From TrEMBL:
The lineage of its organism: Bacteria, Pseudomonadati, Pseudomonadota, Alphaproteobacteria, Hyphomicrobiales. The chain crosses the membrane at residues 498-517. SUPFAM superfamilies: Protein kinase-like (PK-like). It comes from the Bacteria. Residues 93-342 form the ABC1 atypical kinase-like domain. This is Ubiquinone biosynthesis protein. Pathway: Cofactor biosynthesis; ubiquinone biosynthesis [regulation]. The keyword Transmembrane applies. Keywords: Cell inner membrane, Cell membrane, Membrane, Transmembrane, Transmembrane helix, Ubiquinone, Ubiquinone biosynthesis. Belongs to the protein kinase superfamily. ADCK protein kinase family.
Amino acid sequence: MIGAFINLFRGVRVGFVLAREGALAFADPSELPPHLKLALRLGRSIERPGLKDGAARLSAAMTRLGPSYVKFGQFLATRPDIVGMAAAVDLEQLQDRVPPFPQATAVRVVEAAFGRPIGRIFVSFSEPIAAASIAQVHKAEVEDADGTRRTLAVKVMRPGVREGFKRDLEVMRFVARVVHALSPEAERLRPREVVEILARSVMMEMDFRLEAAAASELAENTKHDEDFRVPRPEWELTARDVLSSEWIDGTKLHGPAAIVAAGHDPRSVGRTVIQSFLRQAIRDGFFHADMHQGNLFVDAQGRLVAVDFGIMGRLGPNERRFLAEILLGFITRDYRRVAKVHFEAGYVPPHHSVDDFAQAIRAIGEPIHQRSADEISMAKVLTLLFDITALFDMSTRTELVMLQKTMVVVEGVARSLDPKLDMWTSAEPVVRTWITHNLGPVGRLQSGAEALRVVSNVVGDIPDLAVRLKRVLIRVDEAGTGDAKRLERFARNERIRAVWSTLALWGIAIGALTIAFRGL
């Protein structure tokens, strides 16, 4: 009970700051029930005079609330379905910068993580060169056994940050429950789920071993990509509170002038940004979800290099197929196929009409083909698509919304380097390659082989099941002969049913392989 009152008090403070900084201006009163309209009017009445216009108000409120809410604001930048696209774009620029903590404190954190003095870990360890709410970065040198010196980026956790985030997350959970209670219609946006996703995301960000693992997985997925690479983590110098990785000397993607000065082609780099992101999302199902200019470099060889792997996105096979097919459907103007993909994935309830949904999608797609390539925004198309799906009772898919927001950022980065970039021409090779490989003859063979593997696993489990049944029979026999006989009959019937089920599964597998070979 006391905890609830504390969270209520803290929640009221959050609401007061949001109202005072004018962040409530984003709420659309026409979509609110009467009691929330009244609350909104009261909140707007205490706005500070002289506030900036637009989305900057939300950034100001998050900054005033503190580091946890700055992180929350950055997370909301991936959820334009909640805060709107204008606010999401502004929150993407939210500066997660706070004063650095003392060098001596950072040294203590590093020494505690590795259990030895800093001088025995690094040859040199600089003052902080960048600081954020969770950690700060230092430049360090190590010396290998052969005497070679290498430069590393060392990320050090801010002391006490876990406790602060844990406290603020409890307030966010409380506020999400209140929002749900006051406006059940908001459940479509899943506010409670959003907070839990944020909680998992932040907790993962606060274990640098997991961030190193994300970098390692992305590096493994992209090791054959000649135009993209990931800094190598130093596992021996990485712990929960310290992350060491290869130092990147490169040019940030802050504009074409810097890229040209470094001897690279901005148009080529812009195309690489788009294609690298789509390969990660569609081909691998694991993508960097924070690909803004500050996290992207071009190295001396002209390769795109990404850093900071605290925010990553995952897509399952169904979501990857969904993304690939809707992009290709818009490229080829096959709107019915785009509609069917939504229904096949289960995103749109079956009581709706595929033809009606295809008609709505056509209203998005046809205007595209009336414009020149450089006027077409892939991210805007996906935004409009998700807006239309709301009319057809499509529940919010958090992983797809994060994908959409990342695409907005990626497209902005690419267009900043080449304003005339043809997004669709850049995307088509990646999309077609994935569809050809996964939905063509090769994909059918792989699906057939997977079905065969599942059947084989079932068959392999039958002897183990028989042994388990025998053990049960022995135990029951000790308890009573009559019960044992009944159970023995039951076990015999189950074995017969298992045999017939296995034969049926083999028949299904053979049929799947036959269909696959016919498609060749």
